Amino acid sequence: MGASFESKRVHGAAVVTGAGSGIGRAVSVALSVAGVSTLYITDINAEGLEATQSIIASLNLPSSPTITLVLGDISSSDFVAELFNQIPCLDYAVNCAGVLGSNKPTAEVSLEEFDKLNSINYRGLWMCVKEELKLMLRNDVKPYKGFTLSEEEAKIRGQRGSIVNIASQLGIVGKTQAAIYTASKAAVLSLTRSDSIDYSKPPHHIRINSICPGVIATPMTTSESGEVSSRLRSAISIAPMDRMGLPSEIADTAVWLCSGESSFVTGSGVVVDGGYIIN
């Protein structure tokens, strides 16, 4: 006889950084729809966070999560400490906060530009992962709550938590005039791989994965000035699907990586790019 199971894909508490727009907002919505009961969302943009909360409330879900908005900048160690001091327990984390940086080759990039980008894309993400791991290590190993043929199978597929880091297709391949950005995303992938070696195995049972989005239709890539979108036009045409991806397509991948449905996936960089890196 199979073990009992629930239809919800995720349970418990989640935190999403960069939740005020784009991928972070879509992930926050998707986790709410998938079943989280408690959701912490953070961003530097107060209006964006409030809009994300309003969107979730407008869905009239059968069981909406309790949402806590935490305004701040993840490049600040003081803010990261403040954020995670508000979270008593944590089951899932999706680290979406990031910036594109300037369109320059290395010799033209200032130290200030380098530090600003890496303080968010790599250092800020690392500070968040560190605190997320500390919280998840306090959890019991929870059995998989989807369908299984036995209770033993549900136990084997259990986890204390799951962390998803948003990297980029450009963490895998290079791009002209984008060296510091591509390096920051390669660092996220490397961090993900090494952390998964340390924390996925018993007794920890915390899975850590990355998503490598292609060009996604977000405020960063569709700015009114047209400057960023023109930079990305050639990248869009390189991908066989010949279109921008949608934030919801990244969000669906993030929910899958959080959930027990991906219970044997860790240390991966799941590429969601319309085929860009294969061409």
From TrEMBL:
<dbReference type="InterPro" id="IPR002347">
    <property type="entry name" value="SDR_fam"/>
</dbReference>
<dbReference type="Pfam" id="PF13561">
    <property type="entry name" value="adh_short_C2"/>
</dbReference>
<comment type="similarity">
    <text>Belongs to the short-chain dehydrogenases/reductases (SDR) family.</text>
</comment>
<dbReference type="GO" id="GO:0016491">
    <property type="term" value="F:oxidoreductase activity"/>
</dbReference>
<dbReference type="InterPro" id="IPR036291">
    <property type="entry name" value="NAD(P)-bd_dom_sf"/>
</dbReference>
<keyword id="KW-0560">Oxidoreductase</keyword>
<protein>
    <submittedName>
        <fullName>2-(R)-hydroxypropyl-CoM dehydrogenase</fullName>
    </submittedName>
</protein>
